[in-house]
Design a protein that fits this description.
It contains 21 helices and 7 strands. Helix 13 runs antiparallel to helix 21, helix 17 packs parallel to helix 21 and helix 18 runs antiparallel to helix 21.
């Protein structure tokens, strides 16, 4: 435009003419030219929307001089003279006070829960698993400190979709270069409708030379107040750097306008790489079907319906009936058809000032969905009482609690037999124990074999309880539970051996019941009667005493029969106390073994399960279980 204007001035200067005539008619000629120009502009404005935009720009240039931004190509050649690219014009000497973004209570709660979740999981999950959640937290924190009065919207699309043309149409001036050369857009360009967005644009990494302001057009300027529009390179560009620009900026902007054309709206790269993964961001996305002027008759409606079908298959909610979701609009950036609807939708979207928070909330949804496999489970997890009791029983078997109880019972009975048995029977048993040959006996198990068996039992008990505790947990937490059990089992057999020595069968004589002295006295009386009867008979044999066989024989019979009878009665009476004594010894050893296993294995396992329950609760807050 500037070049054409300069050429017109040159032609008028070269035309010959009378100086007086020019002087006298100069005012009339300029007035007539201005009137003709205004009439021509009005006629063009009625026929061509682009002519209206260009005439508005010409009027602005006539009133304020050439616009500083001018025409800029997105492909920046470092060897080109920088004078042909205009610098950004600061419309105000001092930018207005910027109010930071404020998140609502629900979003703040979810972000706090996500932060707690990441903190509790750093020692359990690898950094790659938590990378996306950490990025969301960082970006949410950075975005919260920036302007809450601006909404950053990126225009993305494939090669030849006409996104740069749409960008220029929304801005009201040719800012981004368009043409048949592909790819045309090489670097992102920012266009801000109001001041105070410098920090937001700097966050995107867009240099000042690629920042622009739109052409002020009154109503459009006020409706889009606060909009920061970013024109991105082609997402399917052959240049890797262009795709990197797209991926980087798409992760930072508040909303996205996807521009598709009738030929490539069903492109698999667009749907599989971008739209489907961004299904959670439906509320901050626009899908614009451009170039509808190329579709005859009802073909535009058919393509639009097919586009909606594809978006629905991608899992993207469509906000067609007042519901929150993606807005799908048909436009023609060339003819201006549908641009009014797009400007109105953008104006309402920007005016709500809710896009940044909705974008952060959608990012949290995506991060939570990616963390689902490492936190969520549909099975009931934890250690049941049955599993705890079985673990204690296995440890008790390993330390020989049952055998220790039986040994204590036999010791009690043996002590009772010694105290209450007849002297002759005890002497006979002693003789049998010492006269029995050692040949033919089964060899007893060595101590080393018993220790190996006990160690195997302990390892099996630990492995079993770890498997039961980790059943149903996500893989990282199940691994953490098993590792906690293995760490606790180190040194457990040795600790159980020491425990067995301290809490096993007590040394010394077992406690005696109250009837024990009576039984001992009765057995002693029976023995004395036998001795008295025998001495009486001997005295009669040696004629020391008068003959009387009845009394001594009766005394001996009473002693001989009463001794075994007292022993048998004591044995029957001793079974109950001996059994209780053995059970007490077994229970004491079982409790000691269970306490040792609980302190070394069950408590660490329970701590891991409690940590998982805590992170599971935080994860529930992140996904918005109460929403």
């Amino acid at each position: 435009m500037t070049a054409v204007t300069d050429q017109d001035h040159t032609e008028h200067a070269d035309q010959p003419g009378d100086g007086d005539k020019a002087g006298s008619a100069g005012g009339t000629t300029r007035s007539a030219s201005a009137a003709a120009s205004q009439t021509a502009q009005q006629e063009r404005a009625g026929n061509d929307p682009h002519a209206r935009v260009q005439d508005a720009r010409d009027a602005h240039m006539d009133s304020t001089g050439a616009w500083d931004d001018g025409l800029i190509a997105r492909r920046v050649n470092e060897t080109t003279d920088g004078s042909q690219f205009a610098a950004t014009d600061s419309r105000s000497a001092a930018p207005p006070a910027m109010r930071p973004l404020v998140y609502d209570g629900a979003l703040r709660s979810r972000l706090e829960a996500l932060r707690e979740l990441v903190g509790l999981s750093r020692t359990r999950l690898d950094s790659r698993t938590l990378a996306e959640a950490g990025r969301v937290l960082d970006e949410a924190s950075v975005r919260r400190r920036l302007s809450g009065q601006h909404t950053v919207v990126a225009i993305a699309g494939a090669t030849g979709s006409g996104k740069s043309q749409l960008f220029n149409a929304l801005a009201g001036v040719a800012i981004s270069e368009t043409g048949v050369r592909r790819p045309t857009t090489a670097a992102p360009i920012a266009c801000s409708w109001s001041d105070g967005a410098a920090s937001l644009i700097e966050r995107l990494g867009i240099p000042p030379r690629l920042r622009r302001r739109p052409l002020p057009t009154g109503d459009t300027e006020s409706r889009l107040q606060g909009l920061v529009l970013i024109d991105l390179p082609d997402h399917d560009s052959a240049a890797v750097q262009h795709r990197e620009h797209v991926d980087r900026i798409l992760a930072l902007v508040d909303a996205v306008i996807w521009v598709v054309d009738p030929e490539k709206y069903a492109d698999a790269v667009l749907h599989e790489r971008y739209l489907r993964p961004m299904a959670a961001h439906a509320e901050v996305m626009f899908v614009v079907l451009n170039q509808i002027d190329r579709l005859p008759g009802e073909a535009a409606d058919q393509v639009l319906d097919d586009l909606r079908r594809l978006l629905d298959e991608d899992g993207i909610a469509l906000g067609e009936f007042g519901e929150p979701g993606t807005t799908v609009l048909p436009v023609s950036a060339l003819t201006g058809e549908g641009l009014g609807d797009l400007r109105e939708a953008l104006g309402q979207f920007v005016g709500e000032r809710g896009a940044p928070a909705r974008r952060v909330s959608a990012d949290v949804d995506v991060a939570a969905a990616r963390l689902w496999p490492v936190y969520a489970t549909r099975r009931r997890t934890g250690l049941s009482e049955q599993a705890r009791e079985e673990f204690a029983d296995r440890l008790a078997d390993a330390v020989g609690a049952t055998a220790a109880g039986e040994a204590a019972e036999r010791a009690w009975l043996r002590n009772a037999n010694r105290a209450c048995g007849t002297p002759w029977l005890r002497l006979w048993r002693w003789y049998q124990d010492h006269s029995e040959p050692t040949t033919g006996r089964l060899p007893s198990r060595t101590q080393a074999d018993e220790e190996a068996t006990a160690r195997q039992r302990v390892e099996h008990a630990v492995r079993t309880v770890a498997d039961r505790a980790s059943a149903g947990l996500p893989v990282p937490w199940a691994q953490a539970v098993r590792e906690a059990a293995v760490r606790g089992s180190q040194g457990l057999p040795e600790a159980l051996d020491e425990l067995t020595v301290r809490a096993g069968v007590p040394t010394g004589r077992p406690p005696r019941p109250g009837w024990w002295p009576v039984a001992v006295l009765s057995q002693a009386s029976m023995t004395i009667l036998q001795f008295l009867g025998g001495l009486w008979l001997l005295g009669q044999i040696f004629q020391i005493m008068s003959p009387n066989l009845g009394v001594p024989v009766l005394l001996m019979v009473i002693g001989i029969v009463g001794g075994p009878l007292v022993e048998w009665s004591c044995r029957m009476a001793a079974r109950g106390p001996a059994r209780r004594y053995g059970l007490e010894a077994e229970s004491r050893l079982r409790k000691a073994a269970a306490g040792c296993g609980r302190a070394r294995v069950l408590d660490p396992v329970a701590a891991e399960l409690l940590r998982y329950l805590e992170v599971r609760e935080q994860y529930g807050r992140v996904v918005g279980a109460g929403r």
